[in-house]
Amino acid sequence: MLSYNGTGGYMEKDQKIIYVVVRSQRLLFLKKLIRQIDPDAFVVVHNVKDVSGGTFFATAAEDHIAQHVESNEIEQEATTDKHNGH
User: Fold this and answer.
1) Please, is 2 exposed, middle or buried when counting C-beta atoms within 10 Å of its C-beta (0-12, 13-18, 19+)?
2) How far is 34 from 40, CA to CA, in rounded Å?
3) Which of the residues 14, 36, 44, 69 has the least number of beta carbons within 10 Å of its own beta carbon?
4) pLDDT digit string (tens) for 22-71?
């Protein structure tokens, strides 16, 4: 999982961008999770043809997301950003 700050091209608002690579079997879980946290989130899904460098452990990414959700860190950030106009 990678997160960084960006600016929306249409609304020109600062946004938090979260980039996650998951196996296709976990996509539905991730989309439901995103909807629970931020129903208005802009989500892009694309197929990965090739990966090089590093190591990909789907369970590690899923565990990381689950830890943040359990501790409400992501949910609190999304709520704070919405209230601040992000």
Assistant:
1) exposed
2) 9
3) 44
4) 888 888 988 998 899 889 888 999 988 887 777 666 566 566 666 665 55
Q: Which is it for the CA torsion 37, 80, 69, 59, positive or negative?
A: positive
Task: Please state, as a whole number, how many other Cβ atoms lie within 10 Å of the Cβ of residue 78.
Answer: 20
How many residues does this entry show for the chain? 86
- Report the predicted TM-score, pTM, of the whole model to 2 decimal places: 0.58
Note whether 74 and 68 are within 8 A (CB): yes
Average pLDDT over residues 14-18: 89
* The token pair that represents 34 in the structure block: 């995103």
Crossing angle (nearest 10°) for helices 58-70 and 27-37:
20
Nearest to 45 by CA among 70, 23, 16: 23
Angle at 53 between CA 48 and CA 55, to 5 degrees: 80
Q: Which residue's entry shows tokens 């931020």?
A: 38
